[in-house]
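Weekly sync notes, structure subgroup
Attendees: PM, AL, DS (notes)

Item 1: joint prediction request from the bench team. They want all two components modeled as one assembly rather than separately. Inputs as received:
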Amino acid sequence: MIGLSHYLIVSALIFSIGLVGVLRRRNLLMLFFATEVMLNAVNIAFAAISHYYNDLTGQMFAFFVIAIAASEVAVGLGILIVLYKKHGSLDLDDLANMRG
Amino acid sequence: MYEIVAFYLFSALTIGLFLVTVMSKNVLYAMTSLAAGMVLISGFFFILGADFLGVVQLIVYVGAIMALYSFAMMFFDATRDIKEKNTSNGLVFLLGGLSALVLVLMFAAPIHSEAIAAAALYPMHEGVGNAQDVGIVLFTKYLIPFEVAAVMLLVAMIAGIILAGKKMDTSLTEDMTADDEILVVKDEK
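Output from the run, pasted for the record:
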């Protein structure tokens, strides 16, 4: 039988995949993708806990996480477009212009 | 039985697709596998009985966010492979593996939670649909966060329009001389 731990472990694995992506990626668009992976992993954990404790609070938090992810993508993609217009690339190494 | 098969199928496919997202050099592959993984995550929600959350996941993530990403990729050069300078891959995989190990060990530990289970703050009701339950809680207990989220989405929309909307008439991917050549050809005709 599938218990709460199964879902939490899957969620932890997906979160770690997103963490590896955030750590090793140099392209800003790919960093955004990795962030989405991490947010989705947290949503799985929320929904699983909500189901196994018979409590709706987890689902509520998952809704707000989705809303925050949507607004993050809207603002972030606008910033990415501005950066691409200015620098011609989305690589983090090209954007390091505050080095003293 | 059905739940077990669905769970293992979805989890294997989701982890594989997200690995493709994180490791792929091509933006199109990464985005497509991310969208597919999100569809499968909505499958998790349907298994868990959170029907409304699954539908919202499909509409918002797969419908809106992926459309936004694919729209934004029209601005960037998506067909070219990304060249990245990965300095310390071993360290990254070590850290990621260690954090995965720690999280899995934490979550694999047995949960003694009778006290939590007894005190469900907003319990689900038998015989009432999930969407109805969610709606009642969302519009009573979580009304103010809901309204704040609406304002936040409005602010995000305005910010996105202002950031991306400047100089929309100039092309980013083609150089301006190509446009000039087209104009010259038109003038000659």
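Discussion: The radius of gyration of chain A is 17 Å.
Action: AL to compare against the crosslinking data before next sync.
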